[in-house]
From TrEMBL:
<protein>
    <recommendedName>
        <fullName>Dilute domain-containing protein</fullName>
    </recommendedName>
</protein>
<dbReference type="GO" id="GO:0032880">
    <property type="term" value="P:regulation of protein localization"/>
</dbReference>
<feature type="region of interest" description="Disordered">
    <location>
        <begin position="1"/>
        <end position="40"/>
    </location>
</feature>
<dbReference type="Pfam" id="PF01843">
    <property type="entry name" value="DIL"/>
</dbReference>
<dbReference type="InterPro" id="IPR008984">
    <property type="entry name" value="SMAD_FHA_dom_sf"/>
</dbReference>
<dbReference type="InterPro" id="IPR037977">
    <property type="entry name" value="CBD_Afadin"/>
</dbReference>
<dbReference type="InterPro" id="IPR028842">
    <property type="entry name" value="Afadin"/>
</dbReference>
<dbReference type="Pfam" id="PF00498">
    <property type="entry name" value="FHA"/>
</dbReference>
<dbReference type="InterPro" id="IPR000253">
    <property type="entry name" value="FHA_dom"/>
</dbReference>
<dbReference type="GO" id="GO:0050839">
    <property type="term" value="F:cell adhesion molecule binding"/>
</dbReference>
<feature type="domain" description="Dilute">
    <location>
        <begin position="255"/>
        <end position="495"/>
    </location>
</feature>
<dbReference type="GO" id="GO:0005912">
    <property type="term" value="C:adherens junction"/>
</dbReference>
<dbReference type="InterPro" id="IPR002710">
    <property type="entry name" value="Dilute_dom"/>
</dbReference>
């Protein structure tokens, strides 16, 4: 804000004091009139940022490309050679280059570019800019239509790796500078290359020789293998190959990778940590291969192997957790009351469930697979306890006291499940045990109790209800259960629960089956690629030892949109408006014909009193 005042009539020009002439470095004798830069090692000529010239198509020119150092001050870019910036100017000629095109400012370790007008075509990483934009180490800058440069800052390169440079700039940025809009090139956030002669060593290092406990980003093998597949599918790998040979080599590599993952799962069938780790990676990699529109047609064998591997890992992990539960479930039936006891009869069971959930989350297992696995564990608890209640064993659990105990202990498991978002799975697969506990502690002596029992114990079949009622041992203050009440309750169950079981093709039996009769379903969505943006944290650390060993090389692509789903079928692939940066060249890959999708028609029949479709589809 300015206050404008009228100049007084007697106003005269103010006399200014002359600044004393400095010695060396100040423009006097022995000094350089243009050397206004501080004498600091940071600003030595070999440490200054610079622009290196590229070809009109963005290609490297090798040793022929000229370099333009950006000193501490302002560098004007345009057809005019400025005399107002201490001799710092970048004179360019050609289409769309204005006399004063733009200004590059180097202050306090930050380099920015500002177009002088809206007609001054200036691009950073393929995106047209209209205001002050910070330049990051390695980014592409274009003036007009044909003048391409790469910005290099040795200080940023020394302080941080390329993937951390953006965070470094944000940390040191000052003033009202605004970052340029996010790049939108349809390419992966990073590319990975590996040599053909070291392919086996590279693949073994990320599969068979890998210790899951040493991996910070648990899905690192998936993203590494997907980048490897994209490299093998692109023309950057052996440009001399014909499309047929390229497709054959891609198919061969992916089939080999899938077989290696499958072998690891088989060899570690008793290790829950490895099983969860590889179940997550196999399912995520399978999703990448199925959805990638360039790779899917050439990875059918690999997809079949990975699908089987996921199922084997799932079944083996369920077996491991059930074996662990079987050692703790006897405490679930301990003859004691632990109403307010923290370390009660359910403590060990809850500890196993908690550790299992922590393992699955740490390994980033798909949520639908997690629900299916806990459905199996809840069913196992239900089966193990229920079968001992109805069995002819000592002690007799068919009493009111045990009904109260079972209800209280089950409530703790159900409360844990609710906190984990598994309440529907617990309600469904603990239902028979829960209804048995309800039957044991409820009233069951009067004719009016028949309707209540039939409505609350609808999951129990006729054999199970008869066993529970006939084995029931009443307390001293309870009357004996009338036989006609038992017969009436059983008759209702024969027309309802038994009929539904037979309609579903299940046998009416007293004991619960050991295995949960549900098909294993591979999730269609909910994978990490839908939410991961850019290079995931921990992926570079995972690949560092492999890069040092010369097995592969990963390079981030600064102009990427950051999406890992960029090549997937449902991704919107319309090109972004405006020119794209030279790194979009990594988008080249072989053309793969897309056939018509195969349509399968299925029918789902829901019984009148059923609970609907499987809980595994619930999110």
């Amino acid at each position: 804000m300015f206050h404008v005042r009228r100049r007084p009539a007697d106003h005269g020009p103010r006399k200014r004091k002359k600044k004393p002439v400095k010695g060396a470095g100040g423009g006097g004798p022995g000094g350089d009139a243009h050397d206004h830069r501080p004498r600091d090692p940071y600003f030595l000529p070999d440490r200054l940022p610079f622009l290196i010239e590229l070809g009109p198509d963005g290609s490297e020119l090798g040793g022929t490309g000229r370099q333009h150092q950006l000193h501490l001050n302002v560098t004007e870019v345009g057809t005019d050679r400025s005399t107002h910036t201490g001799g710092q100017s970048l004179q360019l000629f050609g289409s769309n280059i204005q006399p004063r095109h733009c200004v590059i400012a180097h202050t306090e370790g930050i380099v920015t570019v500002t177009p002088c007008s809206r007609d001054a075509d200036t691009f950073v990483n393929g995106q047209r800019i209209y205001e002050t934009t910070i330049l990051q180490h390695g980014c592409f800058v274009r003036f007009g239509r044909i003048h391409n440069f790469r910005f290099i800052d040795p200080q940023q390169d020394e302080r941080h790796h390329l993937i951390d440079s953006s965070r470094t700039i944000r940390r040191h940025a000052m003033g009202n500078y605004e970052r340029y809009p996010a790049a939108r090139d349809p390419i992966l956030p990073a590319v990975l290359e590996f040599r053909e002669e070291s392919e086996d060593a590279f693949l073994h290092a990320i599969t068979t020789d890998l210790d899951p406990t040493d991996v910070q980003f648990k899905l690192a093998p998936t993203y590494t293998l997907y980048m490897a597949a994209r490299f093998r599918a692109s023309t950057h790998y052996r440009p001399d190959l014909s499309p047929t040979d390229r497709a054959h080599r891609l198919t061969e590599m992916l089939t080999k990778v899938a077989a290696m993952v499958q072998n690891v799962i088989h060899s570690r069938h008793g290790d829950p940590t490895s099983l969860a780790f590889w179940m997550a990676n196999a399912s995520e990699l399978l999703h990448f291969l199925k959805q990638d529109r360039h790779v899917c047609g050439y990875s059918l064998d690999a997809q079949d192997i990975l699908a089987e591997a996921v199922q084997v890992a799932f079944r083996s992990l369920v077996d491991c957790m059930q074996a662990e539960l079987s050692t703790s479930l006897p405490m679930f039936l301990e003859d004691r009351d632990d109403i307010n006891e923290e370390e009660g009869s359910t403590a060990h069971v809850l500890s196993i469930l908690t550790n299992t959930m922590a393992l699955l989350r740490r390994c980033r297992v798909n949520a639908a697979l997690t629900i299916q696995l806990f459905s199996q564990l809840f069913h196992f608890i239900n089966m193990w306890v229920f079968n001992r209640i109805v069995a002819e064993t000592h002690p007799n659990f068919c009493t009111r006291v045990w009904g109260v105990r079972l209800k209280r202990r089950l409530a703790r498991i159900e409360l844990w499940a609710e906190k984990q978002g598994l309440e529907l799975a617990a309600d469904c697969h603990l239902a028979r045990l829960s209804q048995a506990a309800m039957l044991l502690h409820s009233q069951k002596s009067a004719p009016d109790d028949i309707a209540t029992i039939s409505s609350t114990c609808f999951k129990l079949n006729s054999l199970q209800l008869r066993a529970l009622l006939e084995k029931y041992q009443p307390m001293q203050d309870e009357p004996k259960i009338p036989q006609d009440l038992i017969d009436n309750v059983v008759a209702v169950a024969e027309s309802t629960a038994d009929g539904l079981a037979r309609e579903d093709g299940r046998e009416v039996r007293l004991e619960e089956e050991i295995d949960l009769q549900l098909p294993f379903l591979l999730p269609e969505d909910g994978y990490s690629c839908d939410i991961v943006r850019g290079v995931p944290s921990g992926l570079a650390e995972f690949l560092n030892p492999l890069q040092h060993a010369g097995l592969c090389s990963m390079n981030p692509q600064p102009s990427s949109s950051g999406y890992w789903t960029i090549y997937m079928h449902e991704q919107d692939m319309r090109p972004p408006p405006g020119p794209r940066s030279p790194s979009v060249m990594s988008n080249r890959s072989m053309s793969i014909p897309r056939g018509e999708p195969e349509i399968h028609i299925i029918q789902l029949h829901k019984s009148n009193n059923g609970m609907g479709l499987s809980i595994v589809a619930t999110k």
